[in-house]
């Protein structure tokens, strides 16, 4: 019988969507056991939440520093093996760095840090520690996104000609127009969220998705961002023209003021032989478009899909695979890496993906600030 990986969690308490998402995902394949953590900086809420979800109180710590100091004292076969960071953005870097320095594997929410400089330091730290590090660009876990990656990798679309990715939400619309509300929202506070709201939160998903499915690297960006109000320091909407290293051009459209939109993440990749289209709100359908041929719809669970897609499919055809499943697939891949088992590079995003996401965010903001000019991304 295999022994479950001992998982600790930082943040994600109360009614946090991201918290329940990670907890369910970690349990999905019976690979992990949540043994403790710090769910909230307020002790009463922290310990109360732990009791609510059935986590023993002896591994619930008053703060992050106590967690690290106490866990490293435990025998190696008892201490947490991997820790998930689900806190606001500004805490990602100091927490991840200290965890790596103390030998822990890390699963971190995106964006990886609040600056590109921090991200590079984190990579240097990981190189020295040799720990597994995953960044949860959740949508890469969807079976049909993974199928899209393999189809492009195998040349079914031919040479890529056009990329068009849209990520529209409307959640910030009721907040942004009220001065008091926007001042109280942490995602609109640079000291907590970093230099970008919309691009940092959802635009980076679009950026990572393009590189994940296409196999291309975005080399240049030109952005036009929208802040709406002069006293608002964080972008809430934007359009980014992209150029890839091999000359492929495309566009990223991201918005959190798209009134009425829920989570409209649409990916369209067009090649010389065929095109593919995927919509996050209908994740079971991958549309295959070819000149002179009827539209085809590929769905998860069928034998015509790739091993990477089928490996992340848990239900028979016709049964929806949702966002919990996508996150669960990422945790499954990280478990393989921690156990030194063979795994496909597409099974979980790495720290390099997180670093590139930070570089994209900073250059996109700089492009807008400098008058909508082209900015070059670093090669990693």
From TrEMBL:
Matches recorded under InterPro entries: Gfo/Idh/MocA-like_OxRdtase_N, Gfo/Idh/MocA_oxidoreduct, GFO_IDH_MocA-like_dom, NAD(P)-bd_dom_sf
GFO/IDH/MocA-like oxidoreductase domain mapped to chain residues: 145-275
Domain Gfo/Idh/MocA-like oxidoreductase N-terminal: residue ranges: 6-136
Pfam families in the record: GFO_IDH_MocA, GFO_IDH_MocA_C3
Coiled coil: none
PANTHER family attached to this UniProt entry: CONSERVED EXPRESSED OXIDOREDUCTASE (EUROFUNG) (PTHR43708), OXIDOREDUCTASE (PTHR43708:SF3)
Protein name: Gfo/Idh/MocA family oxidoreductase
Organism: Lutimonas vermicola
């Amino acid at each position: 019988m295999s022994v479950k990986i001992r998982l600790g969690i930082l943040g994600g308490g109360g009614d946090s969507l991201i918290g329940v998402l990670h907890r369910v995902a970690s349990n999905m394949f019976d690979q992990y056991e949540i043994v403790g953590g710090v769910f909230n900086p307020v002790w009463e809420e922290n310990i109360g939440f732990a009791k609510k979800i059935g986590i023993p109180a002896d591994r619930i710590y008053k703060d992050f520093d106590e967690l690290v100091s106490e866990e490293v004292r435990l025998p190696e076969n008892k201490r947490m093996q991997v820790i998930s960071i689900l806190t606001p953005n500004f805490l990602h870097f100091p927490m991840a760095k200290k965890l790596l320095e103390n030998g822990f594997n890390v699963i971190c929410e995106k964006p990886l840090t609040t600056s590109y400089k921090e991200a590079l330091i984190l990579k240097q730290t990981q190189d020295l520690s040799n720990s597994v590090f995953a960044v949860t660009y959740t949508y890469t876990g969807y079976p049909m996104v993974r199928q899209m990656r393999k189809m492009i990798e195998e040349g079914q679309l031919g040479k890529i000609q056009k990329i068009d990715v849209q990520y529209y939400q409307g959640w910030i619309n009721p907040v942004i127009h009220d001065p008091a509300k926007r001042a109280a929202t942490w995602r609109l506070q640079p000291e907590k969220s970093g230099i970008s709201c919309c691009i940092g939160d959802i635009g980076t998903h679009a950026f990572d998705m393009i590189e994940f499915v296409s196999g291309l690297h975005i080399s240049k960006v030109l952005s036009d961002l929208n802040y709406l109000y002069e006293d608002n320091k964080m972008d809430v909407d934007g359009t980014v023209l992209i150029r890839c290293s091999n000359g492929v051009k495309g566009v990223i459209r991201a918005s959190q003021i798209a009134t009425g939109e829920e989570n409209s993440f649409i990916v369209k990749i067009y090649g010389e032989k065929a095109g593919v289209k995927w919509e996050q709100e209908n994740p079971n359908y991958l549309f295959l478009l070819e000149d002179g041929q009827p539209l085809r719809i590929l769905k998860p669970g069928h034998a015509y899909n790739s091993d990477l897609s089928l490996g992340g499919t848990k239900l028979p055809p016709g049964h929806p695979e949702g966002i919990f499943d996508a996150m669960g697939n990422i945790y499954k891949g990280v478990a393989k890496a921690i156990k030194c088992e063979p795994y496909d590079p597409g099974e979980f995003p790495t720290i390099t993906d997180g670093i590139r996401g930070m570089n994209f965010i900073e250059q996109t903001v700089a492009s807008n600030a400098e008058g909508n000019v082209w900015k070059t991304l670093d090669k990693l």
